[in-house]
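Notes continue from the previous slide.

Worked example: a multi-chain complex. Inputs as given:
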Amino acid sequence: MEQPRIGVYICHCGVNIAGTVNVREVVEYAKNLPNVVEAKDYVFMCSAPGQEIIREDIKKCQLNRVVVAACSPTMHEHTFRTVLAEAGLNPYLLEMANIREHCSWVHTDKVAATEKAKKLVEIAVAKASTLEPLEEIEFKVNENLLIVGGGVAGMTAALDSARRGFRVYLVEKKPILGGNTARLGRLAGTDMRGVDVAGSMIEYVKRNGMITTLTNTELVSVDGSVGNFKVTLLKKPTYVNEKCTKCGECVKVCPVEVPNEYEFGLTKRKAIYLPSPASYASTYVIDGENCTKCGECVKICPVNAINLEEESERIEIYVGAVIAACGYDPYEPSVGEYGYGLSNKVITLFQLNRLLDPEGPTNGELKIDGFVPRSIAFIMCVGSLNTTPNSYPYCSRMCCSSTLKDILLLKEKYPNIDVYVIYKDMRTYGRDEQLYLTACEKFVKFARFREAPKVSVTGESLEVTFFEETLGEEISIPVDLVVLAVGMKPPKDVEKIRTILKVGCGPEGFLKEAHLKLRPVEAVTDGVYLAGAVTGPKNVVESITSGSAAASKAVGLLCREKVRIEPTIASIREELCSGCGICVSVCPYGAIIIQIKENTRSAKVEPALCKGCGVCAASCPSGAAQQLKYKDIQLKAQILAATYKR
Amino acid sequence: MKYPPNFLVIKVMCSGRVDPQFILEAFRRGADGVMVAGCHPGDCHYIEGNYKTLRRMTLLKRMLREFGIEEERFRLEWISASEAEKFVRVANEMYEKIKALGPLRIEEV
């Protein structure tokens, strides 16, 4: 390697740095560090004249490394890399010392802060001496898009992307599109039902030639990286083809009965069933898990639409970006939690939505055992806000508004019904506050609990007991029906999706945004985007909005011809590698393989897959695996500089 | 938010990059304390790097004990990018403990 000639540039950042750090002293200190040929300071290094100082010096002093001591690299590393490139140096020959966030902003003692700034510069100079030029890796972008989840968020993302001319593969594990929204009944703030919203989207999706819909299909694996993913899917059979006329003869003869998930278990369905009562459900389907293949349906079907021999199909597709829109699951109380499961008079909010839906199991009549209840208690925050040991800590956002919307519907239909809302906090945020005000006008009684209320079920009667905060005493309310306003939880298979897509998740299990505020619909994995409630509780409007947002981000990537990725990835020095394979086992991305050349085993990194975490480098027993820009020798040089006493 | 100025930060992309040798090297060269800070378990930017860190550092802690290096001198902490307050609290705590212990003396073998 050529002899390093380092220029050190120290920024005042106005008074941000210079107010605490004696910059002149740091400059003098830097001048005496090994390999430093020039050291200067300037009031704003990132400004045009500041950048010009560096460009000039690179030429004048024949610098081959640059250290900028200024703010966080997140802020200006890119700026200064560009400066190097403009002056004809490889941009990766830059090292930044963060003397603002790591020094002047967090210390008050000027002498000590100046000493620390000197040390930080020394560490950066030590690293700079070991830097090597690196070339960014460039890939061609595949224009197709994969969307996982056919709820409103996924469908919105599909429609938005397809309308901009991109091929979309819309994958849904259920036999039908529509997601949870389709089952929600009347939506808050509108006269539309969930099924109308989902239905109109399904129509647009069907009509759009750029969208390939794959229902009853699961994600098996996703390999590759941003711009180039290879996706394997498994399309499971529904055993019924498009000849089906929905005559329903098959249902009459099917001997298998299971709870109907579409109605949240309020009714039963057969193993052959219609996945939705809505018109867009075009055929019956057979649920392969419960079907006994007795063949009765095949015998009776008048149009020969059923084939029990149908098999699963593996599908391979190539895409440039992925949107995960796998939604949520409603929180399911355990048996006995608020009396749930002990009486058919304790139901969840989702079940109530079905009962109030004109297409629901009771055609919109709220009848339990044939009677309309005279009094109902709604218990809020079930599964949310840590109300019970099984609960999640977060607020599920939609339950307060959704509950009040249902109550107003009930009050319209049964004006004499007595309604109690037993809540921990009422959070009808934004425009939904109107629902709360209207509910108050309709004499809905609100009571606040401190500890989760107890629901006692004795024979036919129900009683809700709790300590009422405002009255300051324990009260008991006998009611005919208890509705549990259950929240949202991460979908059942989120862990599988997370592992396949290699994205992070938060402590509750929802998929995690790359940055809550700056990158809310992007996953940490480049090329993977997140839409809808899979990142946390959202209402229908918010899910649709995030679907559009994710689509615009994904399209922003797909319309680029090429992607460049940082070259700070792993590399193997073959002559040191014994082929032990430890790196292969620790790599979370499957980016390292063992190759056998002339009977010698050695590891090899696939640059397109490596994300540059460096875990292989820390595990390699022989020092063969190294992370570029974070090599052992480079980090040790920094440690040495940090501990060196001058 | 302030913390003692004798903390120097060396950046790695993931706590999983930290080879226990780096920590031994730092102690050998005269550091009085070393902290490895990473994202919370289950919250790794690189999927699971911090679990590997956890395993490695657990073993390292035992080794440091055998070397006679007081356990307060080494800390593994889960501090996310948004937890400045936690960083400050941990740094101050560690500073106080190490100050009480005094400088680390390792005899050259």
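Summary box: Chain A touches chain B through 46 residues (CB under 8 Å). The CA atoms of residues 71 and 100 of chain A lie 5 Å apart.
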